[in-house]
């Protein structure tokens, strides 16, 4: 080893994929000592040596700790001026942006099919849609169209990709719960114009109030997404304490976007009484609560006393 270089030995993880077994490992990589190489540099060097193993598929860890190292982590060297890393294969990857686009496309395709084209086949009769059904149909389409546009134009992702298999697991939630089941239950004859005529579900004041609360929730959710986008400059993973609407008074929340999301779907559930809407609200709400609590704990660890103590994770003054 030259005085002007340092060496990193890369060995294979115990659990080997077919691709890892096909590579000539262990592999020795040579770097200049200054600046010290990062995990990203190691991944790039491995990809250059073996193009079949792209950087996004690689999991780099230490021999004594299986947890993946962050791309910006600097490599620590022993007294001999060398280091050893363990290489794992995460398998085929797909971009987060693509996953979200595919997920949200499900309800956008399924709801129009059930609403316009399949009532006779599904229910055995034509459905004269009520003002309630027309409203929830519009709310569903507007909500998922908003999500698609946010995915394309607003969201920035700290991780570029995820395992390819996850697209099937994640899509099932949207295609089944908020797609087929929700559409079937919302547009059934039991909520049609003749069925709700003269009831509170046919009351215009109720519908106007529901639209007002739902619109408030959607616009508030968008506002918090724009705030989070502004915190992270393009091409970085910068983290800072979010401030402003939703994060500060009167809500004071770590994840106001989740709160407003739950509020919007709560409106759909309350106005329709749909069991499918309730199931989707419960399942997605539980997941968002877990995400919010995890983010809340992470922010408190990361920012310490700088993080506002009055904030709750997801529900104002409650949780």
UniProtKB/TrEMBL annotation:
UniProt GO MF annotations: oxidoreductase activity, acting on the CH-CH group of donors
InterPro entries registered for this protein in UniProt: 3-oxo-5_a-steroid_4-DH_C (IPR001104), SRD5A/TECR (IPR039357)
Topology with respect to the bilayer: Multi-pass membrane protein
One GO CC annotation: membrane
Principal location class: membrane
BP terms from Gene Ontology: very long-chain fatty acid biosynthetic process
Localization of this protein: Membrane
Keyword Isomerase: no
Membrane-spanning ranges: 262-285
Domain 3-oxo-5-alpha-steroid 4-dehydrogenase C-terminal, chain residue ranges per copy: 161-319
Alphabetized UniProt keyword annotations: Lipid biosynthesis, Lipid metabolism, Membrane, Oxidoreductase, Transmembrane, Transmembrane helix
Similarity comment: family membership: Belongs to the steroid 5-alpha reductase family.
Protein known as: 3-oxo-5-alpha-steroid 4-dehydrogenase-domain-containing protein
